[in-house]
Amino acid sequence: MGPHPAVAAIRHAVRAAMAELAPGDLVLAACSGGADSLALAAALSFEAPKAGLLAGGITVDHGLQPGSARQAGRVAAVMTGLGLFPVLSVPVTVARSGDPGGHLGPEAAARAARYAALDRAGQEAGATCIMLGHTLDDQAETVLLGLGRGSGARSLAGMAPRSGCYVRPLLGIRRAQARAACVALGLEPWDDPHNDDPAFTRVKVRQQLIPALEDALGPGVAEALARTARLLRADADVLDSVAAAEIERLGGTGAAMTDGWPADALAALPAAIRYRVLRAAALAAGSPAGALSQRHVASLDQLITGWHGQRWADLPGGARCRRGYGRLLFIAAAQPEDPGGRE
């Protein structure tokens, strides 16, 4: 007999995600100990050697709960038992509201700390890519969160299957499949209590909003939302490529922080492209992606399309954009503002 259908589905997804890697490449599975990432780690340990790849694991201790270090140690031991090597356990400090740089909410702050740790550890280990255990259900929740925030097409496009060094093989896998795979493999997932805490917005979406939508619209809501994300991602990718070309024509984001960009050239761009160009400049100036909202980008756009003498727009992270002499100049948080002329 072959493996359990859920185990086979996850192994197939991981195998497909590794298709473009070269023998000898190191792949790390990011594992919290939850069912999704644990099933991913098990599939990677099974599939990587057959492809001539090296397979390791990494877990991040956010330090947000008592005993978190012990739990991280248990997760590391499980990954070692699966045959993954190297196995890394990385503690992080999550910025809290009121701390220097604590401008993010608790969910966004934990995510920012986690990705910073994964970036650093992956580079130090020489990993070609890091696999994340986000599932179709996570994708559906992400789309609804983006819709509720009014964040635009890129947010509604959800999480990318590939983004830089990160790979998400399980975006077509349901959360229930991952748990079934763990049961079939004799693995005991750890259920993070934060995943059931209604104080977190994503938990409310998971426990309240999606069930309400299924009651009203019938089954298949999560699949429909994930399908919407795939379709919107294709559109957003095209718009992003056009915006990248316009940024290059304007001299790059570096020019936005040295000489500034001409306001009339920005005004001539279609709104969908102009918003992307402005967002890219804000990120380059140091605004954290998790804190930069469409509202902030709209305030930048007002310096172009609704200008009536206002001098600047403030951005998350202490960055600022000011208009003067017909140009938009982006100022990073650590850079003192030139008090000079006003248009």
Characteristic key phrases:
globular, 343 residues, Uridine Diphospho-n-acetylenolpyruvylglucosamine Reductase, domain 3, alpha/beta, four-stranded antiparallel beta sheet, single chain, six-stranded mixed beta sheet, 13 helices
How are the secondary structure elements laid out?
Elements: H1 5-17, E1 26-30, H2 35-47, E2 54-61, H3 68-81, E3 87-91, H4 106-125, E4 129-131, H5 136-149, H6 153-156, E5 162-163, E6 166-167, H7 175-185, H8 201-217, H9 221-249, H10 253-256, E7 261-262, H11 263-267, H12 271-284, H13 294-305, E8 312-314, E9 320-324, E10 327-331
Parallel strand pairs: 1-2, 1-4, 2-3, 4-6
Antiparallel strand pairs: 5-6, 7-10, 8-9, 9-10
Helix pairs in contact: 1-2, 1-7, 2-7, 5-8, 5-9, 9-12, 12-13
